[in-house]
Design a protein that fits this description.
This protein is an alpha+beta fold and 273 residues long. It has 2 domains: 7-164, Regulatory protein AraC (Jelly Rolls, Sandwich); 165-273, Arc Repressor Mutant, subunit A, CATH 1.10.10.60. The chain has helices at 102-109, 125-135, 144-161, 166-179, 187-194, 198-209, 213-231, 236-242, 248-259, 263-272, and strands at residues 7-13, 22-28, 35-38, 43-51, 53-58, 61-66, 70-73, 79-83, 90-97, 117-118. Helix 2 (125-135) packs antiparallel against helix 3 (144-161) and helix 4 (166-179) packs across helix 6.
């Protein structure tokens, strides 16, 4: 039997002497109207996307997730996540009450206390084991070992794959900048393209290039504009338009801030050398 969100779910419950008293395991089937909002919760929700796409917001961070991705929603913060209208997700999940701070300790032990989205995890098996346990009727079986296995798998994946992938994401963003040197990109465009939240993407890029993404992008435009000033007879207005600045004033102000001189002064100085 499915609920109004088109989900099949089962409740695992134990007495108060167990670390995990209640856990709800479920499978969400494609539903373009699927939307969950939790203003504050004492539970962790750990989810895996089989297929389709969706958007996850935790606090002020927004992430796009798709097939093969895993995400962890942490307690005591705002959650809002929903399926893509055009390609709604199918996912499997486990919602765990954080009794006595037990799950907090596990997250810290496995280094996942800051992890929200794990891209390309591609391993539903540990989620399915928890789901099958909750669906079963054996009262002697415990969910704690399965949760440990799940968190261990996620932690190992993050350590092995994501600790070395920051440069790859940063390089991909750099290539996006080069392709759009004469267009306009925003930080939202960058996050949507990479599929990562602003804070996480900014940190990865800074580690690789020692600068924030947008500052780096604008410096690329500046370098290109200098080349046009030095090697062409195009007007300052034309160069400004070429690089998609809002106005000549904006371009000139930006140029002077970073070079100490106006575009016209820079051109004259370079020609005198």
């Amino acid at each position: 039997m499915r609920n109004r969100h088109n989900e099949e779910l089962f409740i695992y419950s134990r007495n108060m002497n167990h670390p995990i008293v209640t856990a709800v395991c479920g499978i969400t089937f494609p539903n373009e109207k699927y939307k969950i909002v939790r203003k504050k919760s004492n539970a962790y929700s750990i989810e895996y996307v089989y297929e389709g796409e969706g958007v996850v917001r935790q606090g002020n961070e927004i992430y796009k997730v798709g097939a093969g991705d895993c995400f962890i929603l942490h307690p005591n913060t705002y959650h809002h996540y929903y399926a893509s209208a055009k390609n709604p997700w199918k996912k499997i999940w486990i919602l765990i009450e954080n009794n006595y701070g037990f799950v907090d300790h596990l997250m810290a032990d496995y280094g996942l206390e800051q992890t929200v989205v794990v891209k390309d995890f591609k391993n539903p098996a540990p989620f399915e084991a928890c789901f099958e346990l909750a669906r079963g009727s054996d009262p002697t079986r415990k969910i704690e070992p399965l949760l440990l296995s799940l968190l261990s798998d996620v932690s190992d994946f993050v350590f092995i794959h994501e600790t070395g992938s920051g440069k790859r994401y940063a390089d991909e963003l750099n290539r996006l900048f080069k392709r759009n040197l004469y267009n306009t990109l925003t930080m939202k465009d960058c996050c949507d393209y990479i599929g990562m939240g602003k804070s996480q993407l900014t940190e990865l890029f800074k580690q690789a290039y020692n600068d924030t993404p947008m500052a780096y992008y604008m410096k690329m435009k500046l370098t290109s504009a200098k080349t046009y000033l030095e090697q062409t007879e195009r007007s300052v207005s034309e160069i400004s338009m070429k690089h998609s600045f809002k106005s000549v004033y904006h371009f000139s102000s930006f140029f002077k801030k970073h070079t100490g001189m106006s575009p016209t002064e820079y051109r004259l100085k370079r020609k005198l050398k």
